[in-house]
Design goal:
With about 575 residues, the protein is an alpha+beta fold. The protein is built from 16 helices and 30 strands. The structure holds adenosine-5'-triphosphate and magnesium ion. The site of magnesium ion has 2 residues, from strand 20.
Amino acid sequence: MRLSKLPLATLRETPAEAEIASHRLMLRSGMVRRLASGLFTWMPLGWRVARIVERVTRQEMERIGAHEILMPAVHPAELWRESGRWEDYGDLLLKMRDRGEREYCFGPTHEEVITDIARRELRSYRQLPVSFFQIQTKFRDEIRPRFGVMRAREFIMKDSYSFHLGEESLSDIYGDYRQAYSRVFERLGLNYRVVQADSGEIGGSRSQEFHVLADSGEDLIVWCEGDDFAANLELAPALPPEGDREAPGDAMTEAHTPGMRTIRQVAEHLDQPLENCLKTLLVKAEGGGVVALVLRGDHEVNELKATGLPEVAKPLALANAQEVAQAASCPPGFVGPVNLSVTTYVDHAAGHRANFACGANRRDKHFVNVNWGRDLPEPECVDLRNAVEGDRSPGGGGSLQIARGIEVGHIFQLGDKYSRSMNAVVLDENGAEQHMQMGCYGLGVTRTVAAAIEQNHDERGIIWPEAMAPFSLVIVALNIARDEEVRATAEQLYAELQSQGVEVLFDDRDASPGVKLADADLIGLPHRVVVSARGLKQGTLEYKHRRADDAERLSAAEAADLLADRARR
Ligand code: ATP
Ligand code: MG
């Protein structure tokens, strides 16, 4: 493609609304343009990248035998009422009416539509297992669309659905999808992790997420290099500390902690390490009242674990000042487990502390030198906290690492949730009707483009992984409008590389060298070759890989073959 023919306006300035690198760089390099909140047009360079993600994904879906289909984007309300999600899906669901006042939604996902297909088309166990996929536009009315195409309202997803007689078949095909997704992200050249994910309301189902590692990721993921443990932080168990608790020392005393409501203030004032100051959270209980959760000052409560306790109300909610006063007769900030007469759960790590500090259930007072089993009963220990870096891995292979990730894919064993509510059955070997087992598998095509940039960029621009780049090589011809030799050489190189099967972007614009070189870095193709009068005088072209620090001179005569070898994909 000739840049002179592409109306590409790269932006020097960083667009004000863009908070993260991928959003900034996609706008600056002209990959996407914003239409309205969460709505984007994919411009030629960006769309080429999205098409690559689609192509690789499609190939891997076909490799595991999934059939490509295309379902409508607009769905009748009745289907969603059947599954119960017309209400349950909440405000993410964009609802609309046609001229006859019939209700519809714009599909945020397609379980209902595919289950309707399945119950009409599938009759016998002999037709199973079968799996379908589509690559299509979804709409979710996200409460906070942000980060550009990363969390858009309209986006492209590859979604698949599989149908089975029995859980074993579901589990097999789920395994195929897991591998297919791994191959997609591997082939795209992304650094990713597969982690255990929360399967939400549907108990017992298996679910895994694929995360591209990047500092700006919204999710925290935990894994261990020494074993195969990997999970979303919310699901990662925090094991009890090893070894015996320290022996009790001096007697418990009361300390004056005026106005100190945060555990950090208390720790600093008492000159204690944060981990030796226990914090006591009072949270709302199921059906009224409060429950106390005790954690080390440096640990965070894990919402999923806390709400998994029978007494704790869902979603997790802190008690208000009135409830705190009633339960502990003090303001929030001074609550502690000594003589506290509400149900109390203590995190394993907090239960392992000796000679610790904690709230005294009196305004402006904390206790110090507190010991379980001496100043208060032995605790009821549970896992209540988020795992932290360095914790022992539940897999036994060493310590945990934590990083931020961007969820680009999610695979899920649904079981019979939809086949039951929508009555999708087949006849088994004995001629008896059985509800089909279902799996669903989503991959965010457009989010993957943004995630790749998030993982691969520097201060000058994007650094595309070889497989994802919209073109693999850019020819930058300097002063092309004024120098006939430069023009002739660049044109010839362009033609030759194309004939050798290289996808080439040719910067033949009449623009300054500074602008062209900056744009080349911004657009971020892996290979760059500069044709300049100065180089040609010595019979050379200048080659640079986008990741390399220094350029290299190539003999102009041999450049085409050499470059084709490096840049062909
Ligand atoms: P999130 O937790 O990020 O909101 P989700 O868990 O709701 O995503 P799924 O229903 O699992 O998303 O959708 C499958 C895939 O679709 C996700 O893994 C993600 O890659 C992509 N996706 C979901 N929501 C968006 C969005 N608003 N913009 C772009 N891609 C999205
Ligand atoms: Mg998900």
